[in-house]
Amino acid sequence: xxxxxxxxxxxxxxxxxxxxxxxxxxxxxxxxxxxxxxxxxxxxxxxxxxxxxxxxxxxxxxxxxxxxxxxxxxxxxxxxxxxxxxxxxxxxxxxxxxxxxxxxxxxxxxxxxxxxxxxxxxxxxxxxxxxxxxxxxxxxxxxxxxxxxxxxxxxxxxxxxxxxxxxxxxxxxxxxxxxxxxxxxxxxxxxxxxxxxxxxxxxxxxxxxxxx
Length: 212
Prior knowledge:
The chain is built from nine helices and five strands; from the N terminus they run ααααβαβαβαβαβα.
């Protein structure tokens, strides 16, 4: 693996707030695309942080610090991303009720925004009713749900059920992602698609936008 990408992974895993910008700039100067840096460097670094959190080596404060490291890197990447058109539609972005994790959600929002989507970020711990009210009020037809905690995945089903109760299930596309999600969970919950990475989310929403 590219040494510079490995250094980015290690910087995030090591919570290196001061060094991350220089490492990202080095990758960019070497000709790596922002998308590749996100997928191979930042995402894998966050996976390492997540594993340490699950194993009890890292705590909530460490997760927050990892998020700050990523935030430090993102402006450098966003300004170099090539917008893939504009007016692709609005995406409602939310972490499901009971879950307060937002690093992955924020990365997805940044990538979608840089590629022509309007982002309506409702934040974390968002009840299904609020998501549906926003969809109805804005006319947004794309919903991206993040879930990191296995105990909170029922929040996905609540959004799907709420869209049915609101009579708009056939009009909205519900995409899920996060550490505890999978293709099997997507089918179980009745969502439309599962994205393993932020780049996957972009591909999914691009396909939906093109089909409109």
